[in-house]
Design a protein that fits this description.
The chain has about 270 residues and is mainly α. It is built from 11 helices and no strands.
Length: about 270
């Protein structure tokens, strides 16, 4: 009885979680402007209308620039932090790593408002660069979590053997360590890219007059005639996110398999 009740709960939870995602493509390919049942017919015109909106194109370009830059910067910072936390001992290590990981548990609106107050107080104009700063702040803890697992699964004897053969610490890191953790780095880049591309709150506060894709989507919901186009755009974003997360999970598992570590769970 308990098992059947748990299965029923899991089934209802999955429906509650994924029903909105299933409804997105249904209304995106629906011919009607009104988002309601019954569906009137199949059409691709909402996808075609996206090609005629220059503001949408600008928002996409801005979001891609922010996401790529944030992913690269946060992954670089994550490599340094993960390497230091898994390889070395230093004073206040736990406290420092705790502060770095703090954005994982802080509400994003608190982070966004705090950054806004600090940046305006310093006289920094709001732009895409300030959004990148905020996204690096929230993406770095995720990269550290991914890369720490990759660095912890490394066999330290490989590094010691490289030193015995005359390699320097820099060449050992470049020739031995970096290739072994490369799947984790790729996974970190993809996860950071996805988080930055979908992030709304920090972009809303820090973008200034330059639109990003989530902010553009939010603004368009004021116009009922634009909602089907947003549904079509949302369908593309959901598919893109699923593909990126699947690739990231593949590289994460590949990295664990190459290093001989144990898989303790993942994104999918």
């Amino acid at each position: 009885m308990k098992v059947n009740g748990f299965k029923l709960y899991a089934f209802c939870y999955l429906i509650f979680l994924y029903a909105p995602i299933i409804l997105l493509p249904m209304f995106a390919f629906n011919d009607a402007t009104v988002i309601a049942f019954p569906l009137t017919g199949f059409s691709t015109r909402w996808f075609e209308e996206m090609a005629t909106q220059p503001t949408l194109h600008l928002a996409v370009k801005n979001s891609l620039f922010i996401a790529v830059t944030s992913a690269v910067l946060s992954t670089i910072l994550g490599i340094f932090a993960a390497r230091a936390s898994t390889r070395y001992r230093f004073p206040f290590k736990a406290g420092i790593m705790g502060l770095i990981m703090l954005p994982l548990v802080l509400p994003e609106i608190i982070v966004a408002v705090s950054l806004l107050v600090v940046l305006l107080g310093l006289g920094v104009p709001l732009s895409l660069m300030t959004v990148i700063l905020g996204h690096v702040l929230i993406c770095t803890p995720f990269t550290i979590a991914i890369l720490s697992s990759a660095f912890q699964s490394l066999d330290q004897s490989l590094e010691e053997a490289a030193y015995d053969l005359g390699e320097t610490p820099a060449s050992t890191f470049r020739l031995i360590i970096l290739p072994l953790v490369m799947p984790g780095i790729i996974s970190s880049l993809l996860i950071s890219f996805t988080i930055s591309l979908d992030e709304f709150i920090i972009a809303f506060f820090l973008a200034g007059t330059q639109p990003t894709l989530p902010v553009y989507i939010f603004s368009q919901f004021r116009f009922p005639q634009a909602v089907p186009v947003i549904m079509a755009l949302g369908t593309i974003l959901v598919c893109l996110s699923i593909v990126l997360l699947s690739i990231a999970e593949y590289f994460r598992r590949r990295g664990i398999a190459r290093s001989g570590g144990k898989d303790t769970g993942g994104f999918l």
